[in-house]
Amino acid sequence: MRKIQKNGMFQFTNRSKHISFLLTRRMIIWISALFFFVPSISKSREKAKPKQTRTIKSPQSAKTIKKSKAPAIIGRASKPLPVIMLDPGHGGKDPGAIGRSGTYEKHIAYAAAQELSRQLRQTGRYNVVLTRNADRFIPLSGRVELAQKHRANLFISMHADALRNSSIRGASVYTLSNSASDAQTAALARVENNADRYGGPNVHAVSPAVQNILASLVKEETKKESITMAKSIVTAFRPQIGLLSNPRRHAAFVVLKSADIPSILVEMGFMSNRIDESALRQAAHRTVVASAMRNAIDRYFAIGGSMTHLTG
């Protein structure tokens, strides 16, 4: 770089002035670039970092969270439906009574139980279980055990027996008692209680002494509810189905000896009578019988019914 001294002062030549100007200009550009570039770097770093929010927890809010950790749900569970056990009498190697035209009681009982089951399920108000869903033999004690296993609220055994006197016809309903209400019912109970003879050597019939013990174990409340159900069915039958002169009867039926399940035995008619047999062979008549029984069951549970297993 060349300098010229003039009046005691050094001055740059034109060339040096030009270089100085260029250097100054470049410095300004660099400084400006730094001015804009540095904030952009800091901003990009801020964007790259995840946002951290600070929460201030007060003792009161902490207590609230702790309390609402497991909220209770109230009023959501629906009540369980009553369980109704339908017991089609006989089955398998036990034909039951045989009608004058050769009709087997076991088939009539099963067909009627299926129709009643269909009507009850259609209401959506009950759980319905059958002791047998096919033509098979079940011991009397096995039928009671099934009702207890399913925690039934009502047990209905369905039959169409035969009597020596073929002129007797009509439906009837039976409840449990140590003594029979009449000679005809006593004979009927003996026949029904002897059904286990078809089970062979592995199935032992219940002796009269054991029958009395079992009957004594049945709770009084259960007996009362059984009678209430029997009355309800007689009332439902009366306008449209022929009844015996004294349709509500009692005897020591083994199949009714459940300690805490209201149990009844319904005779829909007698196979020994031509008119009853002919009617029970018709699906339309069995539908009428089932409809009356369904109405009786509805009435029974509408006034409280047996909720032993639902509340106990």
Can you offer a commentary on this structure?
The protein is α/β, with parallel strands linked by helices and about 300 residues long. It has one domain: Zn-dependent exopeptidases (Aminopeptidase, 3-Layer(aba) Sandwich). The strands form two sheets. The chain has a six-stranded mixed sheet, with helices on both faces. The protein has a two-stranded antiparallel sheet with strand order 1-2. The longest helix has about 35 residues. It is globular, with a radius of gyration of 46 Å. The N terminus and C terminus are likely disordered.
Structure summary, number of beta strands? 8
Give, in spatial order, the strands making up the sheet with the most strands. 4-3-5-8-6-7
| CATH level-two architecture | 3-Layer(aba) Sandwich
Which consecutive residue ranges, at least 5 long each, have pLDDT under 50?
1-10, 61-65, 308-312
- What shape does the CA trace take? globular
What name does the CATH topology carry?
Answer: Aminopeptidase
For the termini, the CA-CA separation is 115 Å
Order of helices and strands: EEHHEHEHEEHHHEEHHH
Q: Helix tally?
A: 10
What is the helix fraction of residues, given as a range? Answer: 40-55%
* Main beta-sheet annotation: 6 strands, mixed
CATH-defined superfamily = Zn-dependent exopeptidases
Number of domains: 1
Protein structure class: alpha/beta
